[in-house]
Amino acid sequence: MTGVAENHNSTLPPKEAALFKRLLKMYEQKQYKTALKIAKQILSNPKAADHGETLAMKGLTLSYMGRKEEAYEDVRRGLKHDLKSYVCWHIYGLLQKGDKKYEEAMKCYVNALKFDKDNLQILRDLATSQIQLRDLEGFRDTRYRIAALRPSQRSHWLAYAVALHLQGELSLAVRVMEECRKLAHPERMDECDVEYGEYILYQLELMVESGSYNEAVEHSLRYESYVYDQLSLLETRVKCYLALGNSKEANSILSGLITRNPENWAYYRQLTFPLDGANSLMEFCLELQKAIPHAKTPFKIPLTLTEGDEFRRRVRNYLALGFRKGLPALFNDIKKVFEVPEKSDIVEEETLRLLEESRQYIANPPPLNGPDEVPASTILWIYYFLAQHRDMKKDYQRAMEYVEMAIEHTPTLVEAYCFKAKILKHMGKLQDAANCMEEAQSFDTSDRFINYKTGKYMLRANMFDRAEAILSRFTREGVKASESLCDMQCFWYMIESARALKRVNRFGESLRLLHLIDRHFMDIVDDQLDFHAYCLRKSTIRSYVALLRMEDSVRIHKFYVQAAVLAAEIYLQISDKQPNDSDDDGLDKDPSLSAAEKKKLRNKQRKAKKKAEEERVQQEAADKAKVTVKAKVKDDDEPAAAQKEDLVPEKLARPDDPLEQASYFLRPLLSLDIPSFDCQRVIFETYHKKGKYAVAVQALLRMVALDPSNGKLGEYKRMCLEIEDTFNTMPDAVRDGLQQALASVVHSGEASNFQNGFSEDR
Amino acid sequence: MTLCIFLLSNLTVSLGLRWITIVERSMALLSIIFRFLLSGRLIVDFPGGLFFGNSFSPKMVQVQTELGGITKHNLKMVKRLNQVIFPVSYNDQFYNDLLKAGDMAKLAFYNDLAVGAVCCRPETPAAVTAPPFSEGKRLYIMTLGCLAPYRRHKIGTLMLEHVLALCQKEGYTAVTLHVQVNNEAALDFYKKSGFEVISKSDQYYKRIEPADAFLLEKKIVPTKNSDSSTNKAAA
């Protein structure tokens, strides 16, 4: 707040003017109580009672003390009395920013700048709001103004380069970075720091992105010695050499990188053969096996390159070592090999042979070798592996036999119980799976991973209370596990829980969780705010740009997609039921139930509802208590975040416009082209129902691309044909586009499989 | 045999080891060469040779056996091990007491797998009756066992050594334990470790046959260097 300057208070009497200066100082030192007192003192003088800037400062101070409404009132009054004061406008902007109304804040800053066009602080705040809202052009211009005001300060040029980068003006960005680098260039080698290295690497990244590979190579060679992060420097240089077709240089760097870390597959993939000392990847790996015997990848790659007997020999050796060492993850380690069916068979044959041989070995150990050559646990790991292999083949019977043999051999191996639970889950025995997982958990109650697995399995079996009990062992004490996990943005839990609640038709509670997930994603986007200033200050520019790009499509994350699909499905179900009266629960339509059964079920539901209601009331009380505690802690720390509307399950379960709610969840996904059939299916159904046929047709196209043989497509295509007439009301261009698209998928293929209609699938 | 002698002298010269080691090694070497002479092939009777094929190094896999403490988090492991190993079942009180037992109760791990457990308690004074019991403070081994596939890997010895070392440290004068009369393997194991049968308890077990048990005891001779005594016991 250094920018809230001291002029404009010329209208104040001298004593009050001095007080105003003190007020600013107190505010900057975060002594809000004192600041407030001073503000009141100034305003108590009738001559200064309407002083706009003092009123605004008083408001700002109040906002930091959590008194939001008074704050707004004071600031607005202050602004009314002094519309030409940049201080008042700036403060109004800050207040809006505190409430995450960045757009409003931006307008205020622009107004403030009208009256003090070179105010650095306001310019900075404006830039932050602009980048938060991704007003990239505005951000670039503001950043330029800042840099031009203080041309000697390199961090401003750095920020300008980032702005240009985001705007896509790469060559200019490179030039700005060059100037920036020059400003930072150390006089002596030993003065060089990480920050300077970051400048060089960022410039390099800009060059690569703009496609000037020659320049990039030159740059990376010239400044190599200044860079601490040699790994990214070398990896980028490989990228450049490959783009330039200089495979010799690329190979030589890659060889070095592989010696440094032989387990990174990407390095091997980038090699171009023949290279020095090896004509093929196979040869290269064989050489490495000798040179770096402890590395695993040189042994693993040949498994993908060989076939038949050669493969048999190699995989056998690989497995033999793994079994003897007892690697729990051995199966997943070589999972890629199973993509070839014959290899999968060979693996099993060899495993069975190894089983036989190690049994023999253990039965009569040779007298001269130590008994450790084939450790006693070898057989256990072979059983475990065979169980996993049979499970993969969906032969659950045999899988179960093997896992039972493993448990009998060593009844204390937690992994074996976990895997047994997994087989049970695959067999559809969800209750048994949950019980088995709980047993696994009981062997090592300090293991958080198994604890959460157990909770998940219990939710899958709709065991809400038991899941809550298990999970609470690792969550904060004194708070319900379900609440604590939601607070911690524990997405897997929220999704599983929402699914389970949907299964038992507790739509309201399920939707509450799904809306919470949506809010968490909003929070993630909001959380960027702090990084705009922080990353530039710390010069971690490469990760900053990566962060901005990640945030732009954060909702592509599977957890959001899952939540959106689930929410839309629920809303679609609700909309199917409406507009029936509230007592209709769908039971009347079910002919398989007798009247008595229906009554029983209704009673049950009523009870469940009542219980849920009670729980909710308790929950709210707890929440309120928590909020007050939090408020106390935060009191004069930062302005309390904008209050969000409460999520009440009962209200959520009876939305006024379920389709609008469904599309609220789906809208962010429309432009992201999510490669999930389920997601596109829900988009289709929602927008078809809404009458937004263009979106529906687009979803249909994506479905066809994702899974052309899916049985549901026939019904969807037919639905599209039915609506084709409505296209005539649309603008010509849209109509033509839609008709063309539809023609490509519907008229070419036969609209078959009518019986697999979507209405039954619900 | 010239070959043997050549090798022997070569070893003596090149390794310069103490004579005792040389003798041990040369015995092993002799027997290898003897086999070689008999069969004509060196590793013909090693199933292990089949197992590994050829391209892997290191051939030997490190096996680690160690003891670990019992906590509330892994108590269930002890329970399961005892259920599997012993025909007798123990009540919850038994297991809850283990949590406070400290070094008196340990889990044995074989490459991080829990494969055995040992549980002791100080002998209650009430059980001290007339001779043949020796005087002083005595330790009683309630259970000491290892899963069948992991026997003959010195895990029992590891646990017993731990108990004997504990006795030295805490000043116990003797260790006692019961063995079912028909349990030859266990009797062998304890006798080799210096235990003696001092009496027979008729109808000691309630639900298993035979119900009789031997009471075994090993006297603890206090030494300054407890290591040597435990080594002796293990031998």
TrEMBL record, chain A:
Chain segments carrying region Disordered: 578-621, 628-647
Gene Ontology cellular component terms for the protein in this record: NatA complex
Gene3D superfamilies assigned: 1.25.40.1010, 1.25.40.1040
Keyword vocabulary terms for this entry: Repeat, TPR repeat
Compositional bias segments (type: Basic residues): 599-610
Pfam families named in the record: NatA_aux_su (PF12569), TPR_8 (PF13181)
Compositionally biased region (Basic and acidic residues): 611-621
Signal peptide positions (record): none
Keyword ATP-binding in annotation: no
SUPFAM superfamilies per the UniProt record, alphabetical: TPR-like
Protein name, per record: Uncharacterized protein
Higher taxonomy: Eukaryota, Metazoa, Ecdysozoa, Tardigrada, Eutardigrada
UniProtKB/TrEMBL annotation, chain B:
Enzyme class: transferase
Signal peptide per UniProt: 1-16
One GO BP: mitotic sister chromatid cohesion
Major subcellular site: cytoplasm
Cellular component per GO, a single term: NatA complex
InterPro entries: Acyl_CoA_acyltransferase, GNAT_dom, N-term/lysine_N-AcTrnsfr
Reaction catalysis annotation: N-terminal L-methionyl-L-phenylalanyl-[protein] + acetyl-CoA = N-terminal N(alpha)-acetyl-L-methionyl-L-phenylalanyl-[protein] + CoA + H(+); N-terminal L-methionyl-L-valyl-[protein] + acetyl-CoA = N-terminal N(alpha)-acetyl-L-methionyl-L-valyl-[protein] + CoA + H(+); N-terminal L-methionyl-L-alanyl-[protein] + acetyl-CoA = N-terminal N(alpha)-acetyl-L-methionyl-L-alanyl-[protein] + CoA + H(+); N-terminal L-methionyl-L-tyrosyl-[protein] + acetyl-CoA = N-terminal N(alpha)-acetyl-L-methionyl-L-tyrosyl-[protein] + CoA + H(+)
PANTHER family, alphabetized: N-ALPHA-ACETYLTRANSFERASE (PTHR42919), N-ALPHA-ACETYLTRANSFERASE 50 (PTHR42919:SF8)
Stated name of the protein: N-terminal methionine N(alpha)-acetyltransferase NatE
Gene transcribed to yield this protein: RvY_04503-1
